[in-house]
Write a structure and sequence with these properties.
By secondary structure, the chain is of the alpha/beta class. It has one domain: TIM Barrel (Alpha-Beta Barrel). 35% of the residues lie in helices and 23% in strands. The strands form three sheets. The chain has a five-stranded parallel sheet, with helices on one face. Helix 1 packs parallel to helix 2. The longest helix has 14 residues. The protein is globular, with a radius of gyration of 15 Å. It starts with 9 loop residues before the first strand and ends in a 5-residue tail after the last helix.
Length: 155
């Protein structure tokens, strides 16, 4: 259904599992749509426990996947992921983590203090990210500040 709308770019995002990533990369190839693949990670691992670099490597061999990276993760996990994407493929990276709180699934609420340092995106861009922003609990004001901080950055 999304492909029939003729998007310029399809965001395949918040992918927690290597098997799911493989299926979605194949589907993007089959549809012939340009897409980015963005995984959710904990450190250097997908949420299923396997190395995120394996998902990035899957995307590296795809003609349809134009960028790869992470979203819906801790801000500190974005820079290592960007470096892993560039090492795996040399392709542009995607980085849009959460605000920094942790999700407590049992209590069904965010806990902790935000830890999103708006200076981080400059490091992501320097490492190869070309699509940056924020995911859960990173609002419009923070996005504006990020955009301003990146004016004139390489990319």
């Amino acid at each position: 259904m999304l492909a029939s709308a003729g998007p310029d770019l399809l965001a395949i995002e918040t992918i927690p599992d290597l098997d799911e990533a493989a299926v979605l990369v194949d589907l993007a190839e089959e549809l012939g749509l340009p897409a980015w693949l963005s995984c959710t990670v904990d450190g250097d691992r997908l949420r299923d426990g396997r190395p995120a670099a394996e998902a990035f490597a899957l995307a590296a061999g795809s003609r349809a996947i134009v960028a790869t990276g992470v979203n819906c993760c801790a801000p500190a996990d974005a820079l290592p992921a960007v470096r892993a994407v560039v090492a795996a493929s040399g392709a542009p990276a995607v980085a849009y983590p959460n605000a920094g709180e942790a999700w407590d699934a049992r209590a069904r609420r965010w806990v902790g203090a935000p830890g999103f340092d708006e200076a981080l995106p400059a490091a992501w861009v320097a490492a190869g990210a070309r699509f940056v922003g924020g995911c859960c609990r990173v609002g419009p004001d923070a996005i504006r500040r990020i955009a301003r901080s990146l004016e004139g950055a390489a990319g």
